[in-house]
């Protein structure tokens, strides 16, 4: 057997530049008196490749010999120590459980809960844009509150809502990692929130027209043009702009408008369509709009599709109004609260909101359609100035 351990620690430290063999294929290649690298040369399958064992002096003589001994064992077993090391590195990287992989796995697990399986990207986007560029390649088990604080600090006040969402999504990812059996700090996001402090930004709600001013505005929408008709239907039904803009003749049957789940704002129970009771006034608006329908859509765009999301907002801007279309939902809700004794669940359902917890919803099979029908008829009477009566539910 070839002689091993020819070098000594003292010689290695003082050896000049050049190659110095330790035996058994291990040698030190010194570039200068103070630095170099360890090389292991072996024979396998008719070839004599070289394998680096690390830089000197970071890797000591003893450590280099231990690595060479392990490499010789692989050679005796007919395996390339280079390929063995490459395989071990790939496996180690997989076992790191990087945040980017955990985030994608968490997203996949929640797609069924998201509107359109999350294809619009709203759930994942805060992570993708503001967290993963900095922490994506960090093992999730190593992420602490300092990492999170430093990542979100630049947008914590300037983009408060986005930062808040990113922090919430990150907390979900950490819980997902824990469920996979990884050792993570589940309190890291809360501790980061404490470090970041209270956000200066305050969430501002879209301005709404006071409910007492709605009848006068409604009367001003007197022209049989699509913008006026769409605004009138929006007010009469208290629905969101998207649902109104995408209203289709096939969705309407008599005095009921059934909005497909995908046209409603994402809700946990949005697996079913939503029924909207139509007052006689709303039915008249639909009848008028149907005269200009294209491809079944009540409010078609100039060239294709439907009117844009900005159409009604721009109309109110041109009239120099601070209020915006979405605000009419608040106008309606305030009117309900101040002039009626409508039960909470009826009023909230009228807005398409989810009411109660999952267990309560599982046992409650009604959508209060008839109660809502009476309420919406009263609302229509009010906005058209036909009645100012107080609504009472006995």
UniProtKB/TrEMBL annotation:
GO terms for molecular function: DNA binding. Keywords: DNA integration, DNA recombination, DNA-binding. It holds the Pfam family Phage_integrase. SUPFAM superfamilies: DNA breaking-rejoining enzymes. The keyword Repeat does not apply. Residues 204-376 form the Tyr recombinase domain. GO terms for biological process: DNA integration; DNA recombination. Belongs to the 'phage' integrase family. This is Integrase arm-type DNA-binding domain-containing protein. It comes from Halocynthiibacter styelae.
């Amino acid at each position: 057997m070839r002689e091993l351990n020819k070098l000594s620690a003292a010689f290695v430290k003082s050896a000049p530049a050049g190659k110095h063999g330790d035996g058994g294929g291990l040698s030190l290649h010194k570039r200068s008196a103070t630095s170099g690298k360890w090389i292991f040369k072996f024979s396998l399958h008719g070839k004599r490749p070289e394998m680096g064992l690390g830089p000197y002096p970071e890797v000591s003589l003893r450590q280099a010999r231990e690595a060479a001994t392990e490499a010789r064992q692989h050679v005796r077993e007919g395996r390339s120590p280079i390929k063995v090391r490459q395989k071990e590195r790939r496996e180690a990287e997989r076992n790191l459980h990087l945040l980017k992989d955990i985030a994608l796995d968490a997203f996949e697990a929640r797609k069924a809960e998201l509107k359109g399986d999350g294809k619009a990207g709203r759930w994942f986007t805060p992570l993708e844009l503001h967290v993963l560029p900095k922490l994506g390649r960090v093992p999730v088990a190593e992420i602490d509150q300092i990492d999170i604080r430093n990542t979100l600090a630049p947008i914590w006040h300037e983009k408060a809502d986005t930062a808040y969402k990113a922090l919430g999504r990150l907390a979900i990812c950490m819980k997902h990692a824990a469920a996979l059996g990884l050792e993570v700090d589940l309190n890291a996001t809360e501790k980061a929130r404490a470090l970041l402090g209270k956000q200066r930004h305050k969430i501002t709600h879209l301005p709404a027209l006071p409910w007492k001013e709605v009848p006068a505005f409604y009367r001003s929408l007197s022209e049989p043009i699509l913008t006026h008709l769409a605004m009138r239907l929006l007010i009469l039904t208290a629905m969101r702009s998207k649902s109104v803009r995408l209203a289709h003749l096939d969705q309407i049957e008599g005095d009921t408008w059934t909005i497909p789940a995908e046209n409603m704002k994402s809700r946990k129970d949005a697996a079913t369509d939503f029924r909207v009771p139509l007052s006689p006034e709303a039915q008249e608006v639909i009848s008028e709009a149907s005269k200009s329908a294209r491809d079944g859509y009540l409010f078609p765009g100039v060239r294709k599709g439907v009117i844009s999301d900005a159409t009604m907002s721009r109309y109110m801007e041109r009239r120099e109004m601070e209020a915006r279309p979405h605000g009419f939902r608040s106008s309606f809700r305030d009117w309900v609260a101040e002039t009626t004794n409508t039960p909470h669940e009826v009023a909230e359902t009228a807005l398409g909101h989810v009411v109660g917890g999952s267990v309560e919803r599982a046992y409650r099979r009604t959508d209060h359609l008839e109660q809502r029908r009476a309420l919406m008829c009263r609302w229509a009477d009010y906005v058209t100035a036909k009645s100012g009566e107080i609504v009472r539910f006995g």
